[in-house]
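Summary of Year 1 activities. Much of the first year was spent building the evaluation harness for sequence design. The harness presents a backbone, in tokenized form, and records the residue chosen at every position. We chose the following record to illustrate the format because it has been used consistently in internal testing since the harness was completed.
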């Protein structure tokens, strides 16, 4: 089974840094394959809890090299919930790469474990008679401190449902559960990796991008 690795997170940082430099990112140091995957960016300032800055991926298998390259940028620059990440934010970022595995239908909306399973829900909106769907990665519910019902209810809202959530409606939801492996890397760890393996810190316009570095672009 393919698992998320340090090199995958490095490649996502390489891709984002290269976006700002206009260069091509270095070749990935991991083998290709076909798997569902996600890239999540978070930002921490002044020692605060990291806050979501972008998260996009695919629930369908795709080549992981091109997938991480595409979603590193899509999640950083085109997540419509957030403004695009700027280069001056790099020192505050952390990147989490996720490889999704073990898809299986749940018996009902309660048939999953907090912290172990991610969820895909599908249901018919009774107010508009349209199909809605949404997903949470496995770490979301445990990070937020949610139980089963709160997770399902917020996921229905994420899917675009704004009506009254009843027990009978919850029972009509089709739930697919899945698991994932993930790897999280802070920008400082990325810098250390690049220095160790390439001999110099990441640079934009010839200037190293390290903690405290400010770039106006």
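For this record, the design step produced the sequence shown next.
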């Amino acid at each position: 089974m393919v698992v998320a690795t340090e090199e995958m997170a490095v490649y996502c940082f390489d891709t984002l840094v290269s976006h700002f430099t206009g260069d091509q990112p270095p070749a990935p140091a991991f083998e290709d394959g076909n798997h569902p995957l996600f890239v999540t960016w978070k930002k921490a300032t002044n020692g605060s809890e990291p806050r979501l800055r972008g998260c996009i991926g695919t629930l369908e298998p795709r080549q992981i090299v091109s997938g991480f390259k595409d979603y590193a940028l899509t999640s950083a620059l085109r997540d419509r919930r957030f403004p695009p990440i700027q280069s001056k934010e790099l020192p505050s970022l952390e990147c989490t790469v996720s490889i999704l595995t073990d898809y299986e239908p749940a018996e009902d909306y309660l048939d999953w474990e907090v912290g172990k399973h991610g969820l895909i829900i599908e249901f018919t909106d009774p107010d508009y008679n349209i199909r809605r769907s949404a997903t949470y990665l496995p770490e979301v519910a445990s990070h937020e401190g949610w139980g089963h019902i709160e997770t399902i209810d917020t996921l229905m809202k994420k899917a675009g449902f704004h009506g009254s959530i009843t027990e009978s409606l919850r029972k009509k939801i089709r739930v697919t559960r899945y698991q994932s492996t993930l790897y999280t890397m802070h920008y400082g760890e990325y810098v250390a990796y690049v220095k160790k393996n390439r001999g110099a810190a990441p640079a934009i316009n010839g200037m190293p991008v390290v903690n405290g570095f400010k770039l106006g672009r």
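The helical segments are 6-21, 64-77, 138-144, 148-158, 167-171, 187-198. Quantitative recovery figures across the full test set are reported in Table 2.
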